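Hey, can you fold this one?
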Amino acid sequence: MKIKEVQTELVPIALKTPFKTALREVQTLDVVRVKIYLDNGIVGVGEAAPTPAITGDTQESIWHDITQCYRPYLLGRELSHPINMLTELKELVPHATSAKAAIDIAVFDALAKQAQQPLYQYLGGKQASLQTDYTISIGSKEKMVADAQGYVKQGFTELKVKMGLDDPEVEVAKLKAMNQALDGKIQFRIDANQGWEPREAVEIIQSWKGLPIQFIEQPVKAHDLDGLAFVTKNSPFPIMADESLYNLADAQALIQHKACHMFNLKLMKTAGIQGALEIFQLAQKEQIPCMMGSMIEGYVGMAAAVHFAAGMNTLAYNDLDVPFMWKLTEQAKKQMGFTISKNTLTLSNQAGVGIWLEEGRA
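Sure. Predicted structure:
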């Protein structure tokens, strides 16, 4: 397959309600979609979500990198050695993981379409359905309790709780109030998004002993591996690395520092599927549980994340609730390759689906 053209467009994505963490607040977003046209009629579709507070990638930088740097490189290239090509892409522009992810996703979409398989099957996956948690945005104690009760009524059995902005006693009280309101029956995943100092984190986490907590995600600054290791050593709950983990070298450093118990994989951080695979394979070797997560992304980006999660078979957790946050258009429902119901995402088994149904023949 030879690349004939690479096209880029902005796609607006509307959310039902604003999404707030210790790092940012999202109300609406424009994702950057890329389409790679091949000489056999297949079209690979990928997408990047701008998350400057996390990856440093803006809508403008993603657009520039794809159109000015990657497109000239890709035109006329053969996809017979996709891994080599994706590795070379990483050398063209430093960092820029989101733009690279968009290209990577489009390449894997094309390969799965050529193989006439949904991507998760192309990656070796067996199960088309998976369950996800739902994320409680930062708010007042009363609002977070009400939100938690509402999402449990909708069918979610695990809740991810955003924290990291309030004083320790307030953080502690919020979770205890949610647990009491839910009669101790719901499992929590706590995400501070780098919002705590190491000793503060330990103080807060120790105050939650006995609560149904699965893990604590990224309690301290991404660069502070010593601080993360201190929390990991002194926490009664497993610690998960998120913003500290972008690539294989980061994973190796986290292991060397004994800085966490778990990894959170996100395609916008790992520069796409190839990078996520590299980390996941190391994690399997080291017996480190992984969660598949995402940024607040668009239809194609999330479809790719869901396919990757299903393709790995042995992921410990999924944090893929963004599709439940969208104001879904009817067109998107027909194209995105999966359906949502209660806390479950189910992928299409249609031959030739790849990731995205908009374009590309079987």
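The mean pLDDT is 92. Let me know if you want another pass with a different chain boundary.
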